[in-house]
Amino acid sequence: MIPCAYFMNIFKVARSIWIGMGITLKYFLNHKKTLCTIQYPKEKDLIPARHRGIHYLETEKCVMCWKCSDICPVDCIYIEGVRGADGPLQGGYRGQKATLSKFTVDYTVCIFCGLCEEPCPPKCIWLGPEFDYHSTDRTMMEKNLLTDEVYTEGDEVFVEWARGENDRLQEEKKKQKEAEKAAKEAEKAAAAAAEAEEEGSDAEGESAE
Amino acid sequence: MLLNMGPQHPSTHGVFRVVVRTDGELVLESESHIGYLHRCFEKCAEGNNYLQVVPYTDRMDYLCAMMNNWGYAAAVEDLAGIEVPERAEYIRVIVAELNRVASHLLAFGTYGLDIGAITPFLYAFRDRERILKIFEKLCGQRLNYSYVRVGGVTFDMTDEILADIEAFCDYFDPKILDEYDNLLSYNGIFISRTSNVGVIPAELAVSYGVTGPSLRGSGVQRDLRRDAPYGIYDRLEFDVPVGSGEMGQLGDCWDRYMVRMREMRQSIRLVRQAVKDIPEGPFCDKKAYRAVKPKAGEVYKRVEGARGEVGFYVVSDGTNIPYRVKARAPSFCNISILDKLTSLSNVMLADLVAIIGSLDIVLGEVDR
Amino acid sequence: MNLFVFTNFFAQTGKDLKNLGDYAEAASTKWGLAEPGVYYEGGLFFAGLIKWLLSTTEVSSALPFAGTVNGLMTSLAADGSIFPELGGLLITIGVVFGFVNVFAIGAVWSERKVSAHMQCRLGPMEVGPHGLLQTVADGLKLLTKEDIIPRLADKPLFAIAPAVVFAGVLMRFVPLPFGDKLIASDLDLGLFFIAAVGAVEVLGVIMAGWASNNKWSLFATIRTATQMVSYEIPIGIAFVTVILCSGSFSLMEIVNQQGGSLLSADDGYTYQGWVWHWNLFRNPFMPILGIVYFIASLAECKRAPFDLPEAESELVSGFHTEYSGMRFALFFLAEYAAMYLVAAVAVVIFLGGWWSGIYPLDALGTGPDATIYTKTLGLLVKVGVFLSKAFALVFVQMWIRWTLPRIRLDQMMYVCWKVLLPISLLCFVGSCLWELVSGGASVFGFGIVVE
Fold first, then answer.
1. To the nearest whole angstrom, how far is the Cα of B187 from the nearest Cα of chain A?
2. What is the mean predicted confidence (pLDDT) over A42-57?
3. Residues from chain A contacting residue B48 (CB–CB below 8 Å)
4. How many domains does chain B have?
5. Quick check: A186 pLDDT over 50?
């Protein structure tokens, strides 16, 4: 005879499946209330205060102690400059206590551990709320904290030159156009003058006759 | 047929390679190959000072980073004789247990994925997201915290965060956990897939050095928080769930999985107690934190991580750079039992996936 | 009185197609007792539509060759000897193919949305409003992908396998009705044809797995062969039981028996169809058989919890791992077409087909004083009812997929041979006895009363 356990097994499995399906149906019918995702980047979430993202440097306070660079486990902070507020400046920053010519963080290496925040005596380096950044080139992943720009100094110079070039080319084109226009007008005027002369000479000729 | 369950596979929980010799669907023997995620943690630890090693310990078992941090910090504190303030100890318990819940949630979700149920994964991550948001408020990161450091913790826990944690506990236990049980744990198909599969006898588990929920699933009562308490665990009340062969043989996959589900409830219980009793005071021994320079010596300190016993063997030579840091990773010992299991009993290919999932390994820990 | 004249409306070959009203009195067709020429019912409908269009429209004379084109159209319309057999069928199959494509697009979208809503998230939202055009975008992407054939793969088999699978599924749409009289070909052996041609799909899957030259695909192939072939047996027994109770293989006849045909007594049948006249409530074994058929059909479609052939977490993608681009799209299409097919067959044999079970709705467009408009409305209502029932079953299939874990191979064999087969056999024997004892009656009222 068919044992009772066979049917009990079928019944238990069916009941557990039924209960499970009830849970998913409940979520399906209340999906507006149980929704827990947001559509990034149209909607963004709040970033808490202690979020460890990209670094910010308060450059006036920096004393060039190199403590943040030393404590970094992966050595991703590069600092160059001199102490004292009157050092030689080469595309850098002259702060209250130090003159910095380079202060970059390499984000292909940084692990956002936050160890660089504590040893800083004037507490001028901290990790901020920015986290989405990207670049197409490895060299552009070094953030120059002095200027808060993504480009390094060399890139900035190039961009300036490039913009200057563009402006210069535009100016040249405009000048050329004006020159052409002037030349055309001069031609026209010359042609009109020549015609007028002819007519005048004709009229003279006529009147002479 | 010689089959290569290669480093890239949907259900090996990381870069893990198993070469399997099968006869149809039946697995005759298997050979595991690890090392695809080796990042020279121990070599890096020899070149950085005691403070700088903390982020490296995060990335070993990245799913329960707080416990790794705690193990290393406790070892160095033992060596250097640093006293940790009481508030810091309570905070450490809270974050460690919350991290255990988060790690077990991920284990639950991915185990469901391995077995074929896709929805529990999404539910688990919805709840894990709440824990990660709390951690983000607390220390600024969601996965690799570097929060528990030598001498205490990095940031203080504010009242707002404590309120958030209490709200999460009320939301999670018991409603959501009961839902998970109804959806997956007591599902007939799940039970038939995981019970009587991958049975690890207790002596075999102990001899291979298996620890954590995988060991407790075989019925062995062994939990470091109760047997060798560290921190303030001796003041807190909690049960240690142990497998009992409820749905099949003792020590099968279902038992290990159920131990994790029950551990989540106990962790919430611990968090509730710690949040209630947390004292005021300093959260860190700042002086010690700044300049850690233990005397020459060695220490082995172990904590109960989400996957088992996380041990740190630190040797100091008197300078501020450790001479040697060896990490004992629980997943390394847990996964070593896989080859033995496949040769012990009849394992089908689908069962192999279930066994790897139930051992709950993290390859970052296996390879370090 | 005729059931529904509209399909025969245009389907008069060689007659003058100018006055619509003249065809209200056209010959009626009786279901089940049809003559050979009437088999191409649906084909005739569409063929007649085309013929009407051809004979009444004209290409404007401004275009080149207008005169030739017009002449061609008129002559084709007048001499319609080609259309009723070959052309009508081709057109109808074209309509079916179009429906399959549109359904696949809609089904993929709804699967993603259903799964998202069950998992507390949103699903596709970017492409089109609420992501409606997502599947179209996916289809375009797949069309433009590179056609990769592994170097050591068996090229002819690899290339043919998706087509075989898709053809196997598409062929089963031939005897499947979409509404009253809307059918590609009302085969006398409809159900038998559906069950038998399903084997072609198995062949295609095996070809795909073997030709991929990939051990993981081979695993999936072996699993597929066992699964699909085993689960055809409970399905077959369910079919046999329904055929037994209905007395016919033809799907249209099975549906017509479950509803009210509202025919007059001169045909010998009189009954009205309510919900409890559906085959599901015919005798106490039918509900069990319905559940057995549904579970077995899930396994036939390789849907969860029986999706071993494409076990995503073990075998990456199962038998279609090595496929990319349009070949993969064909497999995908075939899967969703099969989902609709088994749902539609379940609706036909158990859930009353296009009868809504509510008398006034069913009676719309029938009767002696029905106008063209009520007849059209009635047709649309019946199509709508059929499609909604089928889509509801497709939703249940999706719901099950996103809830349940996957079953293992030996457990799947256990379920088929030790659970579904005995139960279906018991139901079959019980239905036989029931038919014998009750003389063909159903539980709630009479099934067929021959006066």
1. 5
2. 81
3. 73
4. 1
5. yes
